[in-house]
Specification:
By secondary structure, this protein is mainly alpha-helical. The protein has one domain: Tetracycline Repressor, domain 2 (Orthogonal Bundle). It is built from five helices and two strands, in the order E-E-H-H-H-H-H. Helix 1 crosses helix 2, helix 1 crosses helix 4 and helix 4 packs antiparallel against helix 5. The N and C termini lie far apart (36 Å).
Length: 112
């Protein structure tokens, strides 16, 4: 199941606004964890996502659940980008390097 297809109750899809909140939380978590590490305050993740801390905990009851979901979301985004760029030619290698760096929360130094 993709991170955008989360279910609050097994067998029942999330409402559209809840899906959007979940994706916003995953993106914010990736940013915050990349900048401040995995022990960064979850309040900062919620703030960057534009939701309250209760919404964060409704989607991700533990820090570990959020970390795992953010990682999986990053890998899924990498796969989506790869599929879109498959066969794109010379720029493909750079694109993939950039996506791996994004996924790992690092930035490549220009010229390396």
């Amino acid at each position: 199941m993709g991170t955008g297809q989360a279910q609050a109750v097994p067998g029942r899809a999330l409402r559209k606004d809840a899906q959007l909140n979940r994706v916003a939380l995953l993106r914010a978590a990736a940013e915050v964890f990349a900048l401040a590490g995995l022990e960064a305050p979850l309040e900062e993740v919620a703030r960057r996502a534009g939701v309250g801390i209760g919404t964060l905990y409704r989607h991700f009851p533990t820090r570990d659940a959020l970390v795992e979901a953010a990682y999986r979301h990053g890998v899924e985004q990498l796969e989506i980008g790869f599929r879109r760029r498959a066969g794109a030619g010379a720029g493909h290698r750079r694109f993939m390097g950039d996506r791996v760096a994004d996924c790992l929360g690092v930035r490549a130094v220009e010229g390396q």
